[in-house]
């Protein structure tokens, strides 16, 4: 997608610690497509099923507001990389992530790419896993941190890289060690520094919970306006 240089870029992020009540899951499912309902039924564990349903429900709620329809009439289809896109539309760009009771969605206008990822702060990442996704410089930086800070920083790096690779649509087909970060004034910055890199913006988002949330966005018009809100499920089912 090519955007006008004068087009303002804006990203809305919604965070949702969704209900664990199965009655609510069934209500949310009414807004999903038949294919999504069929997929939800294939999950062996209830927690995975709830996470999937909640994610698609939140995504449909936000996109329906963006394009002016009801959630059940939002038509999603995968692109050649398997990423979901609005059928017949190039905009808005969007990304969905969920983990351990949290769902987050980013919806962007005026951006070429957007990706979001989330992970629980306390998750343990083994040394072998760190070596598989961190550059040599990042591993040296992590090794110099106190143990508690090191664990959280490792999770932050993981979510930053995941959000960037999701924005590109390549996932782990790209070696995450080739994507390195440092921090400037508390803000994560890609290390390479080329012209293309300057169009990328990365943020760690305050989730209001025990989760790390990372955003990646490529915007030619400069730093996008970013708004974050805690989603409240106050709707009735939509047909």
Automatic annotation (TrEMBL):
<dbReference type="GO" id="GO:0019878">
    <property type="term" value="P:lysine biosynthetic process via aminoadipic acid"/>
</dbReference>
<comment type="similarity">
    <text>Belongs to the P-Pant transferase superfamily. Gsp/Sfp/HetI/AcpT family.</text>
</comment>
<dbReference type="InterPro" id="IPR037143">
    <property type="entry name" value="4-PPantetheinyl_Trfase_dom_sf"/>
</dbReference>
<dbReference type="GO" id="GO:0000287">
    <property type="term" value="F:magnesium ion binding"/>
</dbReference>
<protein>
    <submittedName>
        <fullName>4'-phosphopantetheinyl transferase superfamily protein</fullName>
    </submittedName>
</protein>
<dbReference type="InterPro" id="IPR008278">
    <property type="entry name" value="4-PPantetheinyl_Trfase_dom"/>
</dbReference>
<feature type="domain" description="4'-phosphopantetheinyl transferase">
    <location>
        <begin position="114"/>
        <end position="216"/>
    </location>
</feature>
<dbReference type="Pfam" id="PF01648">
    <property type="entry name" value="ACPS"/>
</dbReference>
<dbReference type="GO" id="GO:0008897">
    <property type="term" value="F:holo-[acyl-carrier-protein] synthase activity"/>
</dbReference>
<dbReference type="InterPro" id="IPR050559">
    <property type="entry name" value="P-Pant_transferase_sf"/>
</dbReference>
<keyword id="KW-0808">Transferase</keyword>
<dbReference type="GO" id="GO:0005829">
    <property type="term" value="C:cytosol"/>
</dbReference>
């Amino acid at each position: 997608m090519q955007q006008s240089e004068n087009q303002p870029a804006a990203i809305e992020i919604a965070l949702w610690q969704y209900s664990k009540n199965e009655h609510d899951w069934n209500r949310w499912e009414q807004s999903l497509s038949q294919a999504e309902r069929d997929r939800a039924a294939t999950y062996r564990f209830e927690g995975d099923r709830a996470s999937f349903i909640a994610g698609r429900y939140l995504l449909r709620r936000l996109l329906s507001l963006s394009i002016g329809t009801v959630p059940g009439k939002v038509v999603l289809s995968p692109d050649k990389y398997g990423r979901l896109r609005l059928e017949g539309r190039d905009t808005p760009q969007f990304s969905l992530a969920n983990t351990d009771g949290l769902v987050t969605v980013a919806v962007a206008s005026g951006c070429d790419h957007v990706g979001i990822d989330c992970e629980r702060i306390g998750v343990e990442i083994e040394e072998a896993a760190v070596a598989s996704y961190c550059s040599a410089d990042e591993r040296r930086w992590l090794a110099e941190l106190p143990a508690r800070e090191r664990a959280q920083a490792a999770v932050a790096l993981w979510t930053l890289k995941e959000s960037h690779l999701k924005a590109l649509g390549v996932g782990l087909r790209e070696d995450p060690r080739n994507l390195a970060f440092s921090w400037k004034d508390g803000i994560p910055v890609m290390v390479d520094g080329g012209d293309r890199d300057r169009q990328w913006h990365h943020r760690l988002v305050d989730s209001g919970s025990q989760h790390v949330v990372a955003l990646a966005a490529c915007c030619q018009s400069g730093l996008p306006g970013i708004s974050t809100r805690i989603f409240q499920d106050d709707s009735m089912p939509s047909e």
